[in-house]
Task: structure prediction
Amino acid sequence: MIRSLLSLTLIAITACTLAAQAPRGVGQDFWSNPAMVEKFVGSYGMISSVEPKLSTSETEAFKKFAEAMKTDANAATAILRSEVKADGSHGAQVDFVMGNLSFQAGRADEAMKYYREAIRKFADFRRAHNNLGILLAQRGQFKEAITHLAKTIETGGGDAVTYGLMAYGYLQQNLYLSAEIAYRNALIFEPNNTDWILGLAKSLLESRKFDEAVLLLDDMLKTQETNADLWLFQANAFLGKGDVNRAAANLEIVRRLGKIQPDMLARLGDLFADAGAHDLALTAYQEALAKDPRLPIPGLMQSAELLVARGGNQQGAQLVSQIRSTLGRSLSDSDKVSLQKIEARIAASRGEVGDAAKTLELIVESNPLDAEALLLLANVYARRGEVEKADFLFSRASRIRGSEAVALVQHGRFLVRAGKYSAALTVLERAQSMRPDEHVSRFIEQVRAAARSASF
Result:
């Protein structure tokens, strides 16, 4: 149970961090970057080796267009528009530049139509492929975007933006090796671009190359010690390596930088709880709840359970109390029952089995099919020496759909403690047939050995 709780906790940290800190290379800041926009719409010239030639009339029109662009963009656009033929017989260069003008005017759909037409007329039109790929990436149409960006590279082009957007597109399609290669190429052009570095870090994490990710982020952190994204990504890498302590240390640094989000604070609390640092865990949970009372209630419940499972009864009780006082009216009846179960666990751990039994008996009376409450109560009865009651409740829980295997394993352990090895083996083997488990298999072998010893 504890092991599965910890696994869920680590998965939650990884998922939350990566989701929240996805590379910003296709975010609003990127698209509004003046240098990027200037480069995009400024591609009005020609590259003869991979672009179509102009007709005589188009050459004259482009000369006039270029001159007019110096003083009057509207007049320049009108000059070029006069070259657009209704039957589409004008050249691909006209379509391409009209695409740039449409993009500059905020008409992306129109721009894409012009770029597609330019490519139809001249298949290797490098810049038309590049600009169309960028617009497609901006819209999240990564599969098609990659086709055009790759064509840009194939025809001898490609820069940081081209490779970076390709990488991000691969990342969105879970093609992590391709994303890694593309990000590395983007970094050749822009070695200090944090977007590309974070993208590469995520690619490495998804490929489970945790050591490489740690080293990559170490290098960046030498010069960007206040970059919270880098610390968070490295925390994920440490988690992947199983280095929970260093992951917690990274999250604590982000906390001290004043840039940690409430959900990350809660996850930091989980790491402290698992390490047995109960007071630190409680402080993190309380701070998270104070920052955002809308944190998911199931996650808070799990955090309280983790504290109790790791021996932090006092801190678990305090967290339950704060959940009640902070969330109050937003707690559903089901939530309230869950809190009562945690309180019963705490009471039982403190040896207050009478109080625990009273609470759980009320829950079971209200909902006879609450398998978790039945098992908790069965264990309380076992501790009180009420063997028949415990045996009966374990049997009841094992007949509730979805809880059979868990209940059977707990019943088997109870029977072993009671010295009833033969009955325990029957129950445990039934559990194993329902849900095979390596730990249960080993336990069965130990019970068999104990049964043989007892028979002599």
Notes: Confidence is low (pLDDT under 50) at residues 1-28, 36-42.
